[in-house]
Each structure stands twice: as C-alpha cells, then as structure tokens.
Design a protein that fits this description.
By secondary structure, this protein is of the alpha+beta class. It is about 25% helix and about 15% strand. The protein has three helices and three strands. A hairpin with a 4-residue loop joins strand 1 and strand 2.
Amino acid sequence: MSEAIDTAELGEKIVNVLKTIYDPEIPVDIYELGLIYDVFVNEDYDVKILMTLTTPNCPVAETLPLEVEEKVKSLNEVKDAEVEITFDPPWTQELMSEEAKLELGML
C-alpha cells in the first residue's frame, strides 16, 4: 500500500524551512529575496531546489546551498535534498517579495 504524496503540504513545509535561512548580508530570508526559483518533489520524497544567488561572486556561494540542503533534509518527510545553483535568469531586485522590499526600505 503506497501513500499518496501530498506535494502541496510538503511544499509548504519546505517553504517554511526556506524562510528560516537568511542571506548573511541582507536581513531578509532567501525565499522572500526571490533566490528560490523552483522546488521539485518526486514520489520518492527526494527534493530538488533550483535557486540563485544575488551575484556569482556571493561570499556564501559555497555554504548557502549546503545550508539549504541540510535544513530541507531535516524534514521527516524528505528523503534527500539537492540544490542546483543557476544564474539564468540572473537575480534582480524585482524578484524580491513586497515584504522583502518593505523590510529593506525600498517601498
């Protein structure tokens, strides 16, 4: 008997975890900053996260993806997590949520 995966519920839990991870130079979480482009969950509960960084030379380019993987893997429902970094499309301030812009005094 296989249990149907509730991707919406798991996706919400993953987003909640992502909202606990902050860019060390900007006091806003990576989700609200618009650094997360997509989250994929397969039937084996493996998660793939497509994300970017504010710049290719970002000082946390080595550590931030690992932090994302580790925190997402800490969810009981997640078997494995992988982060893929992309710079296509490049990150811009337009990708930030209204909440992030407000937090940074841009509104």
